[in-house]
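ok so I'm stuck.
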Amino acid sequence: MWAAHSGSLEIVQELIANGADMMKAKGDGITVFHMAASNNDIHMLDYALGLKRHGNDLELKNEDGWTPAHMAGILNNFDSLNLLIENGASISTKNKNGLSVYEEIVRSDNADLLECIYPELKRIIYNRDPNEKASFGLLHLAAGNNGPKVLNYLLSKVKEAPN
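replied:
not stuck anymore, here's the structure
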């Protein structure tokens, strides 16, 4: 994991060539995907995606329930989040606090990133199961933060929404 954290793709490749299992999570649940997403290291992330095992490694959670997409979203790492989404990562997965990736993006006031994922977010919101219990409204989360960027962005979208 140190090699992945430091962004040394060559060392990671050498370790794997010599039998290391980079897909194995550390004791806290952190995987190579979490490391690469939090560092916005798309080269490491792309390499790790090529190593994917069975199952959905992109939805593995650390001890706080964070997926790699949560890490990329809260840190405003557009490139990593985009690559994760393109490869099947969900922005609806909830962490231990009951917040999805897109809710964490709102809570972190990452308006630019929210704008980029808005088409996917809109699809999720409009296709939500009416029986599903919602955690927080996005406007509620945005209004509860010190930064107004996401709130202003969401309010502009409300004005555009059809009645």
